[in-house]
């Protein structure tokens, strides 16, 4: 009697486990090849503009920093990694500080809050730039 009761209870527990909702995968979709595809999943709800470094402003230097990053299920930038910086080392710190403060909200189509990998570029442009032609060429501003 006790054995059959345990078998029935065990079967009920196992069947209950098999009918529970599966968690959404924390794996991200790789949308790096198509920057605009991210708009099907996430919309920026808070964009923080990077500060223009004073030395770059004084020297009238323009440029950009492009990141690869993951927008996680909470709408935060995870692991922002610089994939291109022009000129190298000039805008990196300020661009990184800004991108870490961005927030995204899921679109209606992304109700399961699917994380995605994407790229974002911060452009730094000053009038009468001393390196304007190179900046426009390297950054595609």
Q: Can you characterise this structure?
A:
With 141 residues, the chain is an alpha+beta fold. It contains four helices and six strands; from the N terminus they run αββαββαββα. The strands form two sheets. The protein has a four-stranded mixed sheet, sandwiched between helices. A two-stranded antiparallel sheet has the order 2-5. Helix content is 27%, strand content 28%. It is elongated, with a radius of gyration of 23 Å. The model is unreliable at 1-25 (pLDDT under 50).
Give a brief rundown of this model:
With 141 residues, this protein is an alpha+beta fold. It has four helices and six strands; from the N terminus they run αββαββαββα. Helix content is 27%, strand content 28%.
Detail the topology: elements first, then pairings.
Blueprint lengths: L1 H17 L10 E2 L11 E5 L7 H5 L4 E9 L5 E10 L5 H8 L3 E4 L9 E9 L7 H8 L2
Total beta strand runs: 6
Query: How many H/I helical runs?
Result: 4
> Which parts are unreliable, with pLDDT below 50 for 5 consecutive residues or more?
1-25
Q: Strand order across the biggest sheet?
A: 1-6-3-4
Ends apart, CA distance between termini? 78 Å
Roughly what percent helix?
Answer: 25-40%
SSE order, as H and E?
HEEHEEHEEH
List keywords for this structure.
141 residues, alpha+beta, two-stranded antiparallel ribbon, elongated
